[in-house]
Amino acid sequence: MPSSAAKPPTRRDLLLAGTGLAALAGACHSQPPTPPGTRVPFAALPLGERVTVEHEGGPVEVVRTSTNVTARSLLCSHTGCNVRWDAASSNYLCLCHEGRFNAQGQAIAGFPTRPLREVRTLLLPDAVILLNDSAPTASWRGGWPSRQREAPG
Question: N or C, which end of the chain is more exposed by having fewer CB within 10 Å?
Answer without folding.
Answer: N
